[in-house]
Amino acid sequence: MSKKIVAIDMDDTICHLVPKALHYHNAAYPDLQLSIDQVVSFDLSGIWHPECNEEIFFGRPKLYEELEVFDEHTIEEVRRISEEHDVIIVTAARPTAVPEKWAWLQRHMPFIPFENFFVAKRKSLLEFDLLIDDGPHNLLAAREAGKRTIGIPRPWNLKLQDEFLMKGSWDGMGDLVNSVLSGPGFPAKG
User: Fold this and answer.
1) Of 97, 124, 158, 164, which sits most exposed with the smallest number of CB within 10 A?
2) Helix axes 173-182, 74-84, angle to 10 degrees
3) Extended beta strands in 71-158, E state
4) Which of 127, 65, 54 is nearest to 94 (CA)?
5) What is the pTM of this model?
6) How far apart are the first and last CA of the chain?
7) For each of the chain's 190 residues, which pLDDT tens digit applies?
8) Residue 111 and residue 131 in contact, taking contact as beta carbons nearer than 8 Å
């Protein structure tokens, strides 16, 4: 029997991008302090400082190498999932961020081989059996393509949290992945 393919997002799924970007935004613009609860969509232009833009917010050199691991269970659970399934890391990235993201992944999860590292914004076009992601557009597109999903609850996907199986910690993620992959249908919520 062939292994199932588990696609795992990077930013705000296995590491914390938005909190780090907010940290730098708040340091640069002390007169407009933002919190993660204000990030209710991927369009941040309505909340960040008027002098800020996407390049400033997400384009800081080495930003992606500084990101913290999602939680204390993430690395071991991804390792465990990769022992049973074919894990691919699928991340949207501007070209300048790709080397940084790869460096982060190799520092924290060197067991993920290069050939399992994909840069793609339209993740549902890839072949996989299960997607673990925080992006509402990715969860919706994967479901529409008939793929199974596990969402990571974040303020920007709050409106969809009742529609998707969500897990806020990586503790026990391997067991959940196995349960979802062996189940008869597509879980809506858990």
Assistant:
1) 158
2) 30
3) 86-91, 117-119, 130-133, 148-151
4) 54
5) 0.93
6) 28
7) 589 999 999 999 999 999 999 999 999 999 999 999 999 998 898 999 999 988 888 888 899 999 999 999 999 999 999 999 999 999 999 898 999 999 999 999 999 999 999 999 999 899 999 999 999 999 999 999 999 999 999 999 999 999 999 999 999 999 999 999 998 655 544 4
8) no
